[in-house]
User: Fold this.
Amino acid sequence: MDAISAAGIGKTYPKGVVALIDVSFKVEKGSVFCLLGRNGAGKTTLLRILATQLRPTTGKAEVLGFDVSTRTLPLREKIAVVPQEARPLMMLSAYDHIYYMCRIRGLGDSQAKARTQEIMTELELWEHKDKLTADLSGGLRQRVIIGMALIPKAELIFLDEPSIGLDPLGRRIIWQIIRKMTRVGVTVVLTTHYMDEAENLADKLLIIDKGRTVFFGTVDEAKAATGAEMKMILQKPGTTTLDREVIVPKSEQEIVETVQRGIREGKHVTFKPPTLEEAFIHFAGGSIEEET
Amino acid sequence: MKRRLSEAFYIGMLDILPLLRDPMILIMISLISFMPVIFIGLMASGTAIAVQSLIGAVVLTLFFGGIQVAQSSYFNKHWFRFQDIYVASPVRPVSYAMGLSISTIIGALPATLIAVAILVFIWPVSVLGIVMLVAVSLLLWASTVFLGFTLGSSLKDTRKANSIPQVLGFVLGFMPPVYYPLSVLPVWLQPIAMLSPTTHAAQLAKYYLGLIAIPEWQVIVGWTYLFGFLGLMVMLAKRWSKWVDP
Assistant:
């Protein structure tokens, strides 16, 4: 079953700014769907439409079987969101944020306390529970906001740049949580500027540029569609990167020969598969060329 | 209904908790509406003038609280982004608006209670007088909550979100004859002062507490004006306040 089905979604803001044009896609239940695009490409607009925070101008979208324009109330029972650049209240503790959000979501006192501890432990926030968020690092503050979204055990969660400002370990905690959620059938819609994050997590990608879909498919399909190929790097130990030789092998035979040559010449051979970043630049980079 | 009230209460708690955790801020906020009382008490002679200014303090503490909703809702929407979290959840807009307004009541409570206590101590007030004072103040507060919510949810400019509530607070709060008697204004200015709902609220409160005598028709005009202002603010909120962005 599809968790999201969007057909011809368009959005023009009241002052005439066109943010999305005819965007269509489907997202499978229990998968991670990643929205990529440059700043201002329309990712957040699309996410906000799907999360019922913004009305589309044209098209139709269903999330968990509910129309996002007309059946918002039952849909909102089943979703949660981490908005982009949300900030905690500086004079409250991390615990306050999650506990009171539990109460707002309808949990009783003892349930709220238990759920708060569960979430804070999972996010490695428990040791900071009594600190004011003003005294927490940017990454820990971001985890507090994520914690607020984890409260309801939603069927679908929207994460708008959730790992921004997190250190590599902090990001991996979020990745683990995302994977854990999908294992129990939760669908995750994620926007990010970190290509490694998308590469690690996404089952499907939608790349948007200037409001239009420029790619929809899997990470491997994105890489394949760009024509980007695996590279082999030969470099003598102790030399600079200027001395390295980059080869794009055209056949398995050429791969074997290159490895043998590396051994013969005493060079290290490194394999560099095509990256999502290369694919992203291929799809979204056109607009950079237009601008320059 | 119980669920909505609970949502509203805890949204209000989340909003007011920073103040409750640091009572110094609450005291400072209370002092703002008391400053004119202290000033008038020092400068003017006579208990009646002090009582007028105390009534003004009660009326305007709640009024300023209502106006404060503009900043709370603006920053919840554009800075903290909590409104986005609430929109994409079962929280209803009415719970959210009620929550923000509950927090202003809690914030205004200490100053209001102190003003009423001093009033009872220095002036022979009736129970009806106190009830009416609270009633007109709450009516005015409800109007400004709707006004504040409309402003906060529709404004997009951070500078305006900060300045407009303060300008409104000054023009409708400190300038009109709320802390001081209407009669001290020049006769030509009095009809202009009566355009402000705070003047009507203060006149009614002073009347019910036996400080001034006004004809029956002026009492009716006062209540009509306050209810009319509330109706207008409700209409404005229905038309302009935004929960889901257009």
User: Anything to note?
Assistant: The first helix of chain B runs from residue 2 to 21. The radius of gyration of chain B is 18 Å. Chain B has a mean pLDDT of 88. The interface with chain A takes residues 3, 6-7, 10-11, 13-14, 17-18, 21-22, 79-82, 84-91, 244-246 of chain B (CB under 8 Å).
